[in-house]
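Reminder: ligand-aware prediction takes two inputs, not one.
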Amino acid sequence: MTILFWIPAFAGMTIIKYMKIDLHTHSTYSDGTLDPAKLMEKAHSLGITHIALCDHDSTEGLQQARAKALELTLTLVPAVEINTETNNIHVLGYYVDENDINFINALKKNRDSRERRIEVILGKLSELGIQITKEELREGNRETSLGRPHVADALMRKKIVSTRQEAFEKFLTKGRPAYAPHNDTTAIGAIETILACKGIPVLAHPGFSQQEETIQWLTSKGLQGIEVHYPTHSTQQIKKFSELAVKYNLVVTGGSDYHGPGSGHEAMGTISAPENTLDELLKRKQKLFS
Ligand code: AMP
Ligand code: ZN
Ligand code: FE
Ligand code: FE
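Here is what comes back for the chain with zinc ion:
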């Protein structure tokens, strides 16, 4: 969805202000394949005007993203995505305070837990005769927040699979031989972590199995928004989640969940959040924290 609106300009002239808002992307600071600067360039080339970088359990890429966004006059929203073990719920946090020491520590704890999980996964692969080291997964970015897609990429480099999707289907998804459960982050814990640093918690991609009862429950725990617009959501799902947003007074957001070239999650440019989304998120921030 592209939003165009007219604003009055000099002496009777009008100019078009154009907004294309993608509030869900990942960089090499988690499991994206583009570094933050390249991600901003890609977004700019696709006509995106407002973008959130939501690396998994990390805000480490924001500084680089911000510098490039400034150069390109892109508006960058500082954000994060926290995956949890509760019902496979992922929580996005917008306008988080990346300098809040408790927030920094909470994310670091989650990343440490991710490392331990990856070690279990690599152990299982080793038992299957596939040797991969944790260092190989980092590909030079020592700061990266490790996840299963990094294992998938290593399996691709070894020509054991040809896509991330195939690696998940053969090895990494629940029920497959190298699966290991996530850390002990809960959905409520994720919401609390985000609220504690004055961020706005939003339920990511509810189309992946989230029911009304879950949305109602999360809202009672402080959830403020729902990612209605998402590449895999059907028209019916968009309608259903839009109605639930009204019913539970949640901000409607949207994003592509872009993970970069070769990731299989490459729909940047095809999705835009509604034009009032950032205003609505900022209003929540003001209401909750000032
Ligand atoms: P993790 O954070 O380690 O649990 O890995 C979850 C991430 O893996 C998600 O955020 C997606 O980026 C990616 N992912 C999940 N399922 C698949 C799949 N079937 N194919 C490719 N990537 C996937
Ligand atoms: Zn991801
Ligand atoms: Fe997610
Ligand atoms: Fe994501």
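Residues 3 and 19 are 6 Å apart (CA to CA). Strands lie at 3-8, 14-19, 21-25, 50-53, 75-83, 90-94, 200-203, 225-229, 251-254. We will return to this case in the review session.
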